[in-house]
Design goal:
Layout lengths: L25 H11 L1 H35 L5 H6 L3 H13 L4 H12 L4 H10 L4 H8 L1 H25 L10 H8 L10 H33 L4 H4 L6 H18 L7 H5 L10 H28 L5 H6 L4 H10 L5 H11 L5 H10 L5 H7 L1 H27 L1
Helix pairs in contact: 1-2, 1-12, 2-7, 2-10, 2-12, 2-14, 4-5, 4-6, 4-8, 5-6, 5-19, 6-8, 6-20, 7-8, 7-17, 9-19, 10-12, 10-14, 12-14, 14-17, 16-18, 16-20, 17-18, 18-20, 19-20
Organism: Vibrio gallaecicus
Protein name: Manganese transporter
Keywords: Membrane, Transmembrane, Transmembrane helix
């Protein structure tokens, strides 16, 4: 398992101002409390089991393939070299980069805009096309819908970027001092006074979650696949009743406990953005970090949905249906929030049937994922204008679908 051991990227270590830095540990503690309490045990175990087997395992498998391909595909290829030749090529390249699941491609484009290699139209194209980590969840849960969203993002992002190119020059709203803005983006890179004990805790937790998912990904995928075909896994393997359900709930609790110790929480960005990963990390390590981040937000959404329906007797599908034509707008507005966390909540609600596809479409186009954070730090004016521009096609396509298919 030594290949899964990674070095902690220094820029994820922030100087803590008080002792309780690992605030994410509140999630597994809360989940454990719900599992222990007799009144909530049955519903909690069922919910966590569904989240683990039906979501986490599929997401992990999707991420493993993605990170393995990313490692073995060279960035210095003919396509990349051609992408920078013309303004039109840049826009299409940026839309394709944004369509890659996760936030890495979109972050690259926003930083390339600051350095002067890409134009403002490319920023709009990548913000329109990216779905962030919500793409992994949608691809794993509803592949057809997920691929349709990716294709839509590429097309709409490319068109949007080309239109922007017709009205704005490449250096529109580009900051004058790129070095200064880069320092604003990475204010902690030079800090090395974080306690060694905290670094060791985070490093060990990161390594352990990678090892855990390396062991779980194949059997987890098998159980998830059997569950998708409505196979009773307990009966199939002659296991006691509820064995698979309890196993899924416990494994999810373990993975959330490890995830809670991999990052300190001190601001909005650290809550809603995915964990930063070392470039040299093993693909399975990156898979574990992204899978656990997605799982945490899915669990939150599932618990809200299930307990709201069970305890408060709220039928979210009925409640949201009464919103009528406000639903696409709600999806778009949620997409304007920086970070992947809020967007994972929207996608989870769509997958549970609480939100219609029009809201998901609006969120997918307006959603900027974590790419908005470096844009805000390095070029705030450009980030604001690009976000507003990305909301326009989001509203058009969301309401277009709503009027045609859902009205």
């Amino acid at each position: 398992m030594s290949q899964f051991v990674t070095q902690l990227p220094r820029n994820i270590v922030d100087k803590s101002q008080f002792s309780f830095s690992f605030k994410r540990v509140l999630l597994p503690v809360f989940l454990l409390a719900l599992m222990v309490a007799p009144a909530t045990r049955e519903l909690t175990v069922a919910t966590l089991s569904d989240a683990f087997w039906a979501v986490s395992c599929y997401v992990a498998l999707t991420l493993a393939v993605y990170h393995w391909l990313s490692k073995h595909v060279s960035s210095n290829n003919l396509f990349t070299r051609m992408a920078y030749k013309t303004r039109s090529h840049q826009v299409i390249f940026s839309a394709l980069m944004g369509a890659l699941p996760g936030c890495g491609g979109a972050i690259v484009v926003t930083t390339q805009f600051i350095s002067g290699r890409l134009g403002f139209g490319s920023v709009v194209a990548v913000l329109v096309s990216t779905m962030g980590d919500a793409a992994f969840l949608l691809l794993a849960s509803e592949p057809k819908t997920g691929f349709a969203m990716v294709a839509m993002g590429i097309i709409v992002g490319s068109i949007s970027g080309l239109i922007i190119n017709a009205f704005h020059k490449d250096d529109f709203l580009r900051p004058d001092n790129a070095n200064e803005t880069v320092q604003k983006m990475f204010p902690h890179c030079a800090q090395d006074d974080e306690s060694e004990s905290k670094q060791n805790i985070m490093r060990n937790a990161i390594n352990l979650q990678g090892m855990l998912w390396a062991l779980l990904i194949i059997p987890g995928a098998v159980v998830a696949l059997l569950g998708s075909f409505q196979v009773d896994v307990n009966s199939m393997f002659a296991l006691p009743e509820m064995t698979i359900e309890w196993s899924g709930a416990i494994l999810l609790l373990i993975s959330m406990s490890l995830w809670a110790l991999t990052k300190e929480i001190d601001d909005y960005r650290s809550v809603v953005s995915e964990d930063e990963k070392s470039v040299s990390s093993h693909p399975m390590q990156k898979t574990a970090q992204d899978t656990n981040f997605v799982t945490a937000w899915v669990v939150i959404a599932f618990l809200i949905f299930e307990f709201g329906a069970e305890i408060a007797q709220i039928d979210f599908a009925t409640v949201f249906s009464s919103w009528g034509m406000l639903l696409p707008l709600a999806g778009v507005l949620m997409g304007l929030l920086p970070g992947c966390g809020p967007q994972l909540l929207v996608t989870s609600l769509y997958l549970s049937g609480a939100l219609p596809l029009s809201a998901q479409i609006g969120n997918a186009i307006s959603n900027d994922g974590d790419a908005l954070f470096p844009a805000i730090a390095m070029a705030p004016k450009a980030a604001l204008v690009a976000t507003i521009y990305s909301a326009i096609p989001a509203l058009l396509f969301a309401y277009g679908y709503w009027f045609i298919f859902e009205m």
